[in-house]
């Protein structure tokens, strides 16, 4: 007997949580390309590519669009997939399809059917269940399809004789997202690969960086490494932000020519087998930090290192932000960029002029992965073993009359990817150097040019 796949184990766990009823978890349903009727699409780098729905991918790893997972809980739980049928003509144009028969064997479903049968079979599968686990409001197209099945069961002819059909709806995302917040061993292995590919890409960008290049040329170095090592591509549109662009939190135009006296902030990660990495390093374009650049860089790095050291299981998830704010605020006071007392700067939130974002986020199938940070009372939840997350303090100093000109256009962010363990954290991206001295050495000794 074959060992259950990680996705089968997750489906079984979800079925146990459901206890009763039927769940419907559709794959991505997005606008279609006019010239490609077989795929649903999203956009990366201006290119149209299919991206599976994250919850669907977590439970199936099934890679094709126009598919839906149906779970039936109870004494005899079932896991059923509907997917596209084999079609010789369509496959000639758009590539081979897996088809229901192969999908059932390959992905461990109890049954698989063609999507052509969904509207007929779905009411039959719903019948006898009083609870529907489905995320109404997430997608209007799927909502209409589910309502259509429900309306068939509500019809007087169908309900004659006391037939049971769903009258209670539960948002299935709450269960799935709670599961996704804690990564299993298979997920962690994939994320290690995504992070390692991203580390290699950042190292290549460090070695390639020089004055006169355009931001998009460093972006191309990143993309080359991503694809060369088998990643799907970037987890998100890569940020390569030089000079004043480094003070924009999500600069993605990447069209500016870099100058020798500037910093370039690179925020980029690979998506491998559906899972994301998200790393940031800030480099001196010339290969050496100026005095003010080094002051800001070392301050941000010290906040990041202290926050990583502070994260432990059982501590509240605002621990990293509290650490960032205290260290950055003291450093801004020391550099004369804030005035008054440390407690005053924090209470008045003066630091937000230079540090205006959060400490990081969950990481996984989505770059900002699923999972809650607060309980129902609004209190911070605690870090738990198996969580994967980013830590990413930054400082962004824009020109102003009361800011010394030497600090103008200095934007610095340092970001690593972490796994919370039983006793602390493992820095998954530890192989990517981040001290100013190490970065300068790589840019000096390992240059590609």
From TrEMBL:
<dbReference type="InterPro" id="IPR007865">
    <property type="entry name" value="Aminopep_P_N"/>
</dbReference>
<dbReference type="InterPro" id="IPR000994">
    <property type="entry name" value="Pept_M24"/>
</dbReference>
<keyword id="KW-0645">Protease</keyword>
<dbReference type="InterPro" id="IPR029149">
    <property type="entry name" value="Creatin/AminoP/Spt16_N"/>
</dbReference>
<dbReference type="GO" id="GO:0005829">
    <property type="term" value="C:cytosol"/>
</dbReference>
<feature type="domain" description="Aminopeptidase P N-terminal">
    <location>
        <begin position="4"/>
        <end position="143"/>
    </location>
</feature>
<comment type="similarity">
    <text>Belongs to the peptidase M24B family.</text>
</comment>
<dbReference type="Pfam" id="PF00557">
    <property type="entry name" value="Peptidase_M24"/>
</dbReference>
<dbReference type="GO" id="GO:0070006">
    <property type="term" value="F:metalloaminopeptidase activity"/>
</dbReference>
<keyword id="KW-0482">Metalloprotease</keyword>
<dbReference type="InterPro" id="IPR036005">
    <property type="entry name" value="Creatinase/aminopeptidase-like"/>
</dbReference>
<dbReference type="GO" id="GO:0006508">
    <property type="term" value="P:proteolysis"/>
</dbReference>
<keyword id="KW-0464">Manganese</keyword>
<keyword id="KW-0378">Hydrolase</keyword>
<dbReference type="Pfam" id="PF05195">
    <property type="entry name" value="AMP_N"/>
</dbReference>
<dbReference type="InterPro" id="IPR052433">
    <property type="entry name" value="X-Pro_dipept-like"/>
</dbReference>
<dbReference type="GO" id="GO:0030145">
    <property type="term" value="F:manganese ion binding"/>
</dbReference>
<keyword id="KW-0479">Metal-binding</keyword>
<protein>
    <recommendedName>
        <fullName>Xaa-Pro aminopeptidase</fullName>
        <ecNumber>3.4.11.9</ecNumber>
    </recommendedName>
</protein>
């Amino acid at each position: 007997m074959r060992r259950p796949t990680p996705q089968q184990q997750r489906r079984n766990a979800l079925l146990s949580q459901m206890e009763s009823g039927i769940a419907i978890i559709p794959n991505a349903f997005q606008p279609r390309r006019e010239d490609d009727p077989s795929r649903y699409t999203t956009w990366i780098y201006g290119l149209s590519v299919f991206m599976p729905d994250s919850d669907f991918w977590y439970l199936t790893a099934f890679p094709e669009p126009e598919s839906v997972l149906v779970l039936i809980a109870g004494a005899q739980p079932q896991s059923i997939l509907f997917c596209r049928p084999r079609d010789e003509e369509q496959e000639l144009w758009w590539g081979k399809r897996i088809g229901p028969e192969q999908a059932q064997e390959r992905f461990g479903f109890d049954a698989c059917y063609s999507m052509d049968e969904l509207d007929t079979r779905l009411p039959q599968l719903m019948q006898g269940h009083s609870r529907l686990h489905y995320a109404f409001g997430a997608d209007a197209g799927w909502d209409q399809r589910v309502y259509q099945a429900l309306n068939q069961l509500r019809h007087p002819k169908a309900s004659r004789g006391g037939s049971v059909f769903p009258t209670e709806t539960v948002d299935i995302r709450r269960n799935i997202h709670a599961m996704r917040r804690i990564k299993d061993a298979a997920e962690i292995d994939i994320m290690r690969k995504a992070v390692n590919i991203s580390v290699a890409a950042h190292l290549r960008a460090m070695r390639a960086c020089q004055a006169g290049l355009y931001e998009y040329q460093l972006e191309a170095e990143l993309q080359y490494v991503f694809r060369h090592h088998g990643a799907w591509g970037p987890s998100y549109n890569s940020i390569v932000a030089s000079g004043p662009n480094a003070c924009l939190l999500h600069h993605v135009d990447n069209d500016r020519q870099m100058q020798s006296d500037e910093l370039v902030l690179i925020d980029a990660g690979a998506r491998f087998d559906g899972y994301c990495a998200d790393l940031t390093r800030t480099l001196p374009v010339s290969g050496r930090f100026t005095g003010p650049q080094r002051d800001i860089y070392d301050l941000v790095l010290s906040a990041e290192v202290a926050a990583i050291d502070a994260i432990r299981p059982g501590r509240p998830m605002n621990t990293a932000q509290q650490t960032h704010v205290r260290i950055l605020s003291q450093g801004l006071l020391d550099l004369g960029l804030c005035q008054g007392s440390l407690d005053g700067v924090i209470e008045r939130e003066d630091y937000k002029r230079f540090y205006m974002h959060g400490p990081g986020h969950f990481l996984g199938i989505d770059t900002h992965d699923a999972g809650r940070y607060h309980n129902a009372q609004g209190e911070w939840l605690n870090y738990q073993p198996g969580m994967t997350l980013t830590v990413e303090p930054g400082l962004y100093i824009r020109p102003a009359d009361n800011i010394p000109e030497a600090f103008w256009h200095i934007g610095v962010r340092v970001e690593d990817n972490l796994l919370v363990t039983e006793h602390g954290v493992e820095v998954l991206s530890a192989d990517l150097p981040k001290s100013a001295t190490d970065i300068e050495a790589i840019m000096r000794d390992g240059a590609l040019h």
